[in-house]
Design a protein that fits this description.
single chain, 2 helices, 3% helix, 46% strand
């Protein structure tokens, strides 16, 4: 598959007209799921075919979590995966998804999961960040696969040893991930998402182009499963010269077309493109070998409202076209100017849900 080049010209077109904007919400609309716990990137377990995997009257949801800290950005250095059972009425906390002794990193970052409901068995793809026992949080990001057996109450009771499933090659995919060492500058090899396309199994992931001519070298990378495991392929999206990060890539099939989405923040675009808002971005292609097209002509599906530019992030479009995200800096009309202001604004909880309407290469929010 030839990578789609998301270019500066695509992003420049965002400024030429209107685009869908998510409604503003108040902090009261995003209550914490567990007292004393921050929750951000979160996703439901899907079936192997990519549908929502209903179990015991709800969905299994995996989330990044951390204790509430004075600096909300510090959560990334202590993030752990936590399991929940979500119904229409409540979230039931099922505790840590992985035992600390089994975790291959100093912390865990986002991924995806498949659920075999008959066997009550979860296949987890996730990012191990750093290394166990390191003195300070490192920037290593490795992709792992693990199988987890669930008990009658849905709590994990047995685990296989996590196996590193995809490794960057230094040719197409960058291996030096420290970048500038600050938020928005580190490079990517994270956020694995399982998808089936044209009879094949794929893992998509946020990555960075090796030996790129630009420091803004974000990719949506890909690996394909064959008889001996996962094999790196060419990336699906190349955003060199546009942005440093294409986070939480994921795909859904709708009316015979494959939609590929990712989240990007304003601050990680190349400096001349920072008119582009924090939002959900995407491309679409018909089945077969049809070329990718940017959604809405430029790639922006929808953005945070201009008067609340960081109110939500890490969107995921589900097979029913509902959209999940987490409530980030709620109520601020600009970046936080102090740690105390960021702490007051950061919600650390699921954001109110949204819903998309997709018609070919056009996307809009449903009122």
């Amino acid at each position: 598959m030839t990578p789609f080049r998301w270019t500066p010209a695509h992003v420049a077109a965002i400024a030429e007209g209107g685009y869908p904007v998510a409604p503003r919400f108040a902090a009261a609309a995003a209550p914490r799921v567990v007292p004393g716990i921050e929750l951000w990137d979160h996703w439901p377990a899907l079936t192997p075919a990519g549908a929502l995997a209903a179990i015991d009257g709800g969905l299994l949801v995996i989330a990044l979590t951390a204790p509430i800290l004075p600096d909300p950005e510090a959560r990334h250095a202590v993030a752990r995966l936590r399991l929940f059972h979500r119904t229409a009425l409540s979230w039931r906390d099922l505790g840590a998804l992985l035992p600390p002794a089994l975790s291959p990193g100093s912390r865990e970052w986002a991924g995806s999961a498949l659920l075999d409901t008959a066997r009550r068995r979860l296949t987890l793809y996730f990012t191990a960040a750093g290394r166990p026992g390191e003195a300070a949080p490192g920037f290593d990001q490795r992709l792992f696969e693990c199988h987890i057996t669930l008990g009658d109450d849905l709590r994990p009771i047995d685990w296989t040893t996590p196996v590193e499933c995809v490794v960057p090659d230094g040719e197409a995919y960058e291996t030096a991930l420290a970048g500038g060492g600050e938020s928005g500058t580190i490079k990517a090899f994270r956020d694995p998402f399982h998808v089936r396309d044209q009879g094949s199994e794929w893992l998509l992931f946020a990555a960075s182009r090796a030996r790129a001519e630009s420091a803004w070298n974000g990719l949506v990378g890909a690996a394909r499963r064959d008889g001996s495991g996962w094999r790196l392929t060419a990336p699906w999206i190349d955003a060199t010269g546009v942005t440093n990060e294409l986070e939480r890539p994921h795909a859904v099939v709708h009316e015979g077309a494959l939609y590929l989405f990712w989240s990007t923040q304003r601050k990680v675009f190349a400096p001349e493109l920072r008119h582009a808002p924090t939002g959900l971005y995407g491309v679409v292609r018909a089945t077969g070998d049809a070329p990718w097209q940017p959604v809405n002509g430029h790639g922006l599906v929808f953005a945070n409202p201009p008067e609340a530019p960081a109110q939500a992030y890490s969107w995921q479009v589900l097979p029913d076209l509902s959209v999940w995200s987490f409530a980030d800096l709620v109520g601020l009309d600009r970046p936080a100017t102090s740690l105390a202001e960021a702490r007051r604004a950061f919600a650390g909880a699921p954001a109110p849900g949204l819903r998309l309407r997709l018609e070919g290469a056009r996307a809009a929010l449903v009122d």
